[in-house]
Amino acid sequence: MDPSEDWLRRWHDRCPGATSRAFLRAKPSTYEWLAGHARPGDRVLDLACGDGILLARLRARGVQGAVGIDMSEGELSAARARLGPEANLVKGRAQALPFEAGSFDLVTCHLALMLMRPVEEVLAEVRRVLRPGGILAAVVGGRGMEAPVENAWTLLVRRLREEPFDGPSLGDRRAFSEEGLRELLQSFVNVRIESMFVELSGTPDEVAASLWETYDAARIASARVAVIEEALRADWQALLRPDGMLPCSMGVRCVTATTEAFR
């Protein structure tokens, strides 16, 4: 197992549901964007399904029997608690999917594809398990996207740039940029990439809790966490709205790609 993959698995075992806790209040909803690509009769696979929040959204839209796969037992336990014993959940890796070729109409992935290595193996597996004409829909991190205005997220990124990271590098740099994504998705057709900012605003405590449950924050020296948080909260004072809410927005890229209709 790649060192970064092992690090991510252990992190998610410790912090199941961290992604959904932050992105459930996202506007527009990245989970709804993904769920919107499914039709009631579709066979759907959710890669890195986490605590099952997207599977719950699919169920609410009438998609029965969607499958979730994740390498973290902590996340899968949280998903079972959310979805009940009838949920179809599999422990496994996206690089070696335990499904027959052509098993799915739609494969979804929320903020995980850019972290998977080797990502070429993941995409080859996605192509294999999708039916001809099947769709991959993924939300990936928008590294390099410039926020229109300064907010809590941009201030965190600025602070963390000054800190040394402890642990392996995460993901494939190509999957964080539009140019790199198009290179990686050359074997698909109808590739569409939309850049957007999602609002994650909340009270300072809500925003702080979300920001500290991130991979970057988890890889800084523990002795520095309190120092950085104190500095950030001082920075945030100038951003607070009259209602006490703190603006926070993050760039993401929403990707769709289709397999060839005939192979």
UniProtKB/TrEMBL annotation:
UniProt GO MF annotations: methyltransferase activity
CDD domains in the record: AdoMet_MTases
Name of the protein in its database record: Class I SAM-dependent methyltransferase
Coiled coil (residue ranges): none
Pfam families: Methyltransf_11
Keywords associated with the record: Methyltransferase, Transferase
Source organism of this protein record: Polyangium mundeleinium
GO terms for biological process, alphabetical: methylation
